[in-house]
Amino acid sequence: MHQAVDRVAKRKEKTMKFYRNPTFAFGFLALLTAAGPLAAEISVSEIFQNQMVLQRDVEHPVWGWGEPGENVNVEFAGQKVSAQTGKDGRWEVRLAPLKASATGRTLTISGAKNRIRFGNVLVGDVWLCSGQSNMEMPFKWGVIGGEEARRETEKFPQIRFMRFLKLKTFYPLEHSHNTGWKICNKDNLQYVSAVAYFFAREICRETGIPIGLLGNNWSGCYIEPYLSLESLEKIPELKTFADFVHQVRARDTERDFQALKQWVADSEVRREAGLPLRNPPLVFDPDHLCDKRYVSITTQYNAMIAPITRFPIRGCIWYQGESNANAGEGVEYFHKMRALIQGWRSAWKQEFPFYFVQLSSFGKVEEKPEGEFTWSSVREMQSRALELPKTGMAVTIDIGDSANIHPGNKLDVGKRLALWALKNEYGKTNLCPSGPLYRDMRKEKGGIRIRFHYAQSGLMVGEKKGIAPVREVPGGRLKQFAIAGADRKWYWADARIEGSDVFVSSPHVPDPVAVRYAFRKNPQGANLYNREGLPASPFRTDSWE
């Protein structure tokens, strides 16, 4: 069955290739919709399908299209609500808040000419799962513990997922394109995001609440394609990106539209005459203008996020940054994280929780104590994003792979994200959701004392192997600490745990002013943990370039 699903998805994605040319997609859709609804029968947004999960405890909209002035009835869980399509053919109803239910029920949508039924519909929490390849990474890519997870899926039929097709446009779309809602069973688990599944499994184990996963990913992408124009306009530091989008939208749009309009008219004549259609005209393609961070900005948001922002969600988990880190970004990445989080919350009209993964370890192990500013800078900006409300970060430097940018341990990634959700959204207030996060420093005689958040239970030297729990190393020596004086010369430091603090010193630096920890692309050997077995995030106390 899963092979058939993928074949259908591939055929659908192939037929939708015109969307990848932003101006063409906009012009063509405008032509198609100018005359009104595409079909006389009632239709509904493509996100509503069999086996879906509806978001609990909120008014839940159901929307679609039909003949202007047509009555539409929606029935679910004892509720019956009605609406009439507007002059533009659009309709929407709202179901009253629903309680969580793992019992499959039927959602019915009726119009004058047809009736649509969706079966095995659950009510629970829906999480948007987005980012680049490490979030997309399905079990079939080779996930540690994947076979065991596959055998256990029968215990979690209440976990459902939907994957969205990879499309780009420079204008927001109204329709979403996906492979349908699927149950995370042993047959199709290989197509599910491993991070998302392990995240959902932890929540289901603790709460029993059905979980819906919206897989909205693009391997190798920058963060920019997932940003909305509206969010860019609100952040002064990103003005150049907003200006670029406006320039692209304004450039030759009228010329392209007229060419498309002429092609459609010609195509109608040729089709009636039984002649083959000519190829559509080439229209403006910005891909040659500048670097990839610009040419795709907003395009994935427009095609993959905008069409689903009316569908309520509980929150978002996000795993991205490798591409931007490889481009050498610094503080700008923080502003893009702001745009992402604030922009999506604004689109959903909801300040939902946003939990993200800090970049793991990868690549060559550098021996210089001062570290480097590629992946380290992005990690630093990810930590800074915790300034935003209702955010949380899963640290993963201890479960990376120096030779593989897609580390196979996605179990711990999902579990660490789930800790944030369980504590903040599901009432498990006794949980510690994070490893130690740098709090402040204090100079003392002979060294510097570092204090941390999330270290109340104490710190330890730990060792992590595979997906096994972290093991304490009694008497172990802390690694990856460096120290410098006012001359900005860095030396490897002696670091020792003192309760919930770390005292850092070096005989080479009698008057230290700054400390760095694991501040490098691959901080192999970093081994500072809290007593809950969660790793400390890399940090630096200085602001030197």
Describe the protein in words.
By secondary structure, the chain is an alpha+beta fold. The chain is 27% helix and 26% strand. The chain has 14 helices and 25 strands. It has helices at 2-15, 22-34, 133-136, 146-152, 194-207, 229-233, 239-250, 253-272, 292-295, 299-305, 322-326, 331-348, 375-384, 411-424; strands at 43-44, 53-55, 60-65, 71-76, 79-84, 90-95, 101-110, 115-131, 159-164, 178-183, 211-217, 315-319, 354-357, 391-394, 437-444, 447-453, 459-463, 471-472, 481-485, 490-492, 494-498, 501-505, 512-517, 528-530, 539-540. Strands 2, 4, 5, 7, 8, 9, 10, 11, 12, 13 and 14 form an eleven-stranded mixed sheet that branches. The radius of gyration is 26 Å and the shape is globular. Residues 1-39 have low confidence and may be disordered.
> Largest sheet, if any?
11 strands, mixed
Helix-residue proportion: 25-40%
Strand content: 25-35%
Discrete helix count: 14
- Could you report the average pLDDT, rounded to the nearest whole number? 91
Number of strands: 25
What is the overall shape? Answer: globular
Structural class: alpha+beta
Which short descriptors sum up this protein?
545 residues; alpha+beta; 4-stranded antiparallel β-sheet; 25 strands; 27% helix; globular
